[in-house]
């Protein structure tokens, strides 16, 4: 049952990311795209991480607690939490959400919903999804390959995004940054 639910949710997530990227991508011709290659980098890292993670999973025997069902349950919980956080964050931003870094004229600094607790909840959700992918593989190498490159790519993306937001909103965003952590409430 866990395996079937995992498979459905995993492929739902993959499909949702493709749809979100296609629907919310701001055209470069609009002049307000400040992505600096971070979206392309993120997609490359995501595809490479998942590919490497799955390859390792099937070529190196499980090295993390064997076939522990509790680990599969933990992976499923992390996946569901990650999806819920990511989709809620995207829904909260509505038309302000863009797959690439772009500031729209009507955009404002969001401080409602999950944005009260962290500045980048959609990235927190994505990190939880990749933690889930690594745990699901039941392999320490896969866990590292799923989490570390994605985290590094997201840190670059956050840097680019926050630079654009500070330029667009000035002191309002700086004040929000002082009050609200990036990814983990009260921590980071």
UniProtKB/TrEMBL annotation:
GO CC, one annotated term: membrane
GO MF annotation list: protein C-terminal S-isoprenylcysteine carboxyl O-methyltransferase activity
A Pfam family recorded for this sequence: ICMT
Gene3D superfamilies according to UniProt: 1.20.120.1630
Entry superkingdom: Bacteria
Broad class of where this protein is predominantly found: membrane
Membrane topology: Multi-pass membrane protein
Record key words, sorted: Membrane, Methyltransferase, Transferase, Transmembrane, Transmembrane helix
TM ranges: 6-26, 38-58, 70-93, 114-134, 140-158
Annotated localization: Membrane
Protein name from the UniProt record: Isoprenylcysteine carboxylmethyltransferase family protein
Organism: Alloacidobacterium dinghuense
Higher taxonomy: Bacteria, Pseudomonadati, Acidobacteriota, Terriglobia, Terriglobales
């Amino acid at each position: 049952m866990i395996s079937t639910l995992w498979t459905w949710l995993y492929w739902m997530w993959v499909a949702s990311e493709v749809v979100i990227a296609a629907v919310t991508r701001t055209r470069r011709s609009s002049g307000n795209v400040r992505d600096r290659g971070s979206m392309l980098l993120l997609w490359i890292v995501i595809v490479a991480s998942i590919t490497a993670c799955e390859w390792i999973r099937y070529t190196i025997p499980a090295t993390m607690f064997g076939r522990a069902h509790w680990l599969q349950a933990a992976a499923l919980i992390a996946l569901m939490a990650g999806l819920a956080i990511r989709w809620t964050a995207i829904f909260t931003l509505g038309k302000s959400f863009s797959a690439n870094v772009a500031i729209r004229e009507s955009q404002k600094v969001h401080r409602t919903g999950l944005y009260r607790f962290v500045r980048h909840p959609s990235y927190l959700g994505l990190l939880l999804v990749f933690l889930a992918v690594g745990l699901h593989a039941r392999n320490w190498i896969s866990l590292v390959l799923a989490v570390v490159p994605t985290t590094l790519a997201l840190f670059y993306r956050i840097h680019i995004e926050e630079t654009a937001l500070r330029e667009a909103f000035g002191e309002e965003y700086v004040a929000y940054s002082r009050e609200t952590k990036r990814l983990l409430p009260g921590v980071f």
